[in-house]
C-alpha cells in the first residue's frame, strides 16, 4: 500500500493525502536544516555525530526511530534494533499543525490537518496489524512495513541506493545506514553532505563509497532542466574526491550559491533568474521580512477571531450542564401531533457501521488476552456483551455519534475515530447501568438492584458488579487514550463526572422527596442522562475538525443533551401511562406497578395536586393515582419532552444542509412519537 491506497478512495482520501503531504514537506524542511523531527506516536528522526575534524566541522547522519507506542499498539517491530543513545521523544522539533496548515497544506485548516494526519496514523497501524505490506512516503524517506516488520529507507539526496558497503565490510540496510550530513564548519562556510561511514580518528577504516548530496529537502514542484543545470556539475563530482572538494570550498562557492538561489526562488515562488544578481544575505533578509509579515497577518487573524468569539460569548452565557447556545431559526415543528416526516432513516444510514461497532465491543469484552481474562470469563461481562449485541436500544448512543460525525464533516462521512468514540460512549453508559442502584445486603426483590442482578442472578454480589463496571470503565479509558485528542478526553471525562454528580443529586432527592422540585430533578436527570450523550455529540464534531467551543460543536452538545432528555421524559411518561392502565384494574398494586424513577409526571401533577408528592415517599393510596390522571401527568410530561425535542431540532440549524441532518431531525420526531428506531 502506498499513500494513495492508505488514504482511501472516499471523499476524504484527497484531504488525507494533502495533510500527509504537508507533513512530509515540513519534515523535509527540518531535515534540510539538520533539525530533529518528532511526530508523536509514530516516529522521530534525530542527528548523530559520527566524527569531528580539527576545524570543528562535524559529520552527522540522521537516524530514524519508530515510536515504541506505535509498535505496541499495532504489533509492529523494527527490522533492526534501535541504536544506543537515542534521545527522548520530543527532543527534536515536534510537528506544529498550525504551521502545516498555513504554510504547506494549500487550504486545509489546522484542525483538518490534525484530524487527517491522525487518521492516516491509525490507518497505517491497522494495515500493519493486518499484516499488509505498506510503503508510506513520510517526506524524508519511505517507511516500509512487511509482515509487521518495519524499516526506513531515506530517499532523495539522503539515500545511497538499496544498500551500501561501509568501511568495516559490514553490509547494512539503507533503512539503518542513515547517511551523514556534514554540519556547517566553524567559519560558517557551506559544507557537503555524504552517505557512508565516518572515517576519522586513529584506526578507522576508510569508506569504500560515498555519494554527495547538499540538502535533503525536495521542492514542492519539480525542477526545470535549466534549474537542474545550475548545480549539475556539483552532482557530477567523483565520490572518491569528495573530501578534497570539501577542502576546496571556495572553488565550489558559485555552485553552492546557484543551488541555494534555486531553492530560495522556489520557496519565494519566483523565477531563480530574478534573484541571480542578489546576494544570499539580501535574499535571506527578504525571506525574514516575509516571514515576519506572515506572522503579523496570522496574529491579526487570531485577534479578529478572538473578537468574534468574544462577541458570540457576550450574547451567550457560559455553558453549564445542558445549557443552550443562541437559539437558531426553527428547523421544523416537532410536536406530539406532527407525524414523522418522510426522509432518510437514521438507523439505516449508519447500520453497517453500527454492526461493526457491536462486533468491536463484543471483541473487547470477550478477549482472553492479558490480565482481564478472569473478568471477561464471568457471567456479568457475558451479559454486557449480550446487551450490546441484542438490544436494539443500545444502538441509540453510537448512532448519534456517527450521525453527528457525518453531519459535521465537510464530506459527510465518518472515520475510525468516530467509531472508537461511539464504542467509548456506550461502554461508559453500560458501566453506569451496572453500578446503578447496587442492592443492599438484605434485598431479595429482583425488581431492585442493578441490571446485572436482573439479567444474570441475584447472588452475583455487589463486589462483582462494581468490579465489572470498573472493568468497562477501564476498557473505555484505554480506548479513549488511543484517540490521542486532549479536548475529547477532557469532555468525555466531564460526561462521566456528570453521571456521578447526577447520581448523587438523585440520591439526595430520594432522601427528602417532599422538598424535591421539578427543576432539581430535571437538573439531576440532565447530568446523569443527558450530559454524556451531549458531550459525545460535541466530541464527534471535534473529531470532524471543529474546535471544542465552536458554534457547531456547542450546537451538537445541545442537540444530544436535549434529545436525551426528550427520550428519558418519554420513557417516564410511557411507564406511568402503562402503570395507570394496570391500576385501573387493581388499584392496590400501585406501589408494585409504578417504577421508582418515574418522578417528572408526579412533580408535574403536584403543581395542581400537591398531595401526589406522597407517592415519592412510598404512599400507595389509590386516590393519588386518580389525581395523577385528573392532572394529566402523562400528557404534561410528553409535552415537556416535545419541548426538548424541538430545542434539539432547532440546534441543527447551524449545520450544513445534508441528508444526515434531515435524519437527525427525523430522529427527534421518532423519539417523541415512540416510533421504533430500528
From TrEMBL:
Keyword Ligase: no
MF terms (GO), sorted A to Z: metal ion binding; prenyltransferase activity
Cofactor annotation: Mg(2+)
One Pfam entry name: polyprenyl_synt
Coiled-coil boundaries: 284-311
GO-annotated cellular components: transferase complex
Keyword entries, A-Z: Coiled coil, Isoprene biosynthesis, Magnesium, Metal-binding, Transferase
InterPro entries per UniProt: HU-CCDC81, Isoprenoid_synthase_dom_sf, Polyprenyl_synt
GO biological process: isoprenoid biosynthetic process; ubiquinone biosynthetic process
Domain CCDC81 HU: start-end pairs: 18-77
Similarity field: Belongs to the FPP/GGPP synthase family.
PANTHER family per UniProt: ALL TRANS-POLYPRENYL-DIPHOSPHATE SYNTHASE PDSS1, GERANYLGERANYL PYROPHOSPHATE SYNTHASE
Protein name (record): Geranyl diphosphate synthase
Lineage: Eukaryota, Haptista, Haptophyta, Prymnesiophyceae, Prymnesiales
